[in-house]
Amino acid sequence: MTNQITIGRNPQSTIVVDAQYTTVSGSHATITRNGNVLTLEDHSTNGTYINGQKIHHASATIQQGD
Q1: Is 35 within 8 Å of 1 (Cβ atoms)?
Q2: Which of 17, 22, 18 is nearest to 7 (CA)?
Q3: Do residues 35 and 25 make contact, with C-beta atoms less than 8 angstroms apart?
Q4: From CA 39, how far away is CA 60, in angstroms rounded?
Q5: What is the C-alpha to C-alpha distance for residues 5 and 17, in angstroms, rounded to an integer?
Q6: Is 52 helix (H, G, I), strand (E, B) or coil?
Q7: Nearest one of 52, 53, 40 to 7, comparing CA atoms
Q8: What is the spatial distance between Cα 49 and Cα 66, in angstroms, rounded to a whole number?
Q9: Tens-digit pLDDT profile for residues 21-57
Q10: What whole-number distance in Å separates Cα of residue 44 and Cα of residue 49?
Q11: How far apart (Å, rounded) are the C-alpha atoms in residues 10 and 1?
């Protein structure tokens, strides 16, 4: 089973970030669950940090606590 959530300033996002946070893009990232595997894919202008590591227009496997 695959599930997906979207993160961004766009009101259509699953998780909507307030527009005051200008470093967050309208469509910033998606998190996809495929079985027990969670993958974050960055779609943003500025990139996303996971555990201090920047990803930009890439994806990374994430776990609880990341």
Answers
A1: yes
A2: 17
A3: no
A4: 6
A5: 13
A6: coil
A7: 40
A8: 10
A9: 999 999 999 999 999 999 999 999 999 999 999 999 9
A10: 11
A11: 26
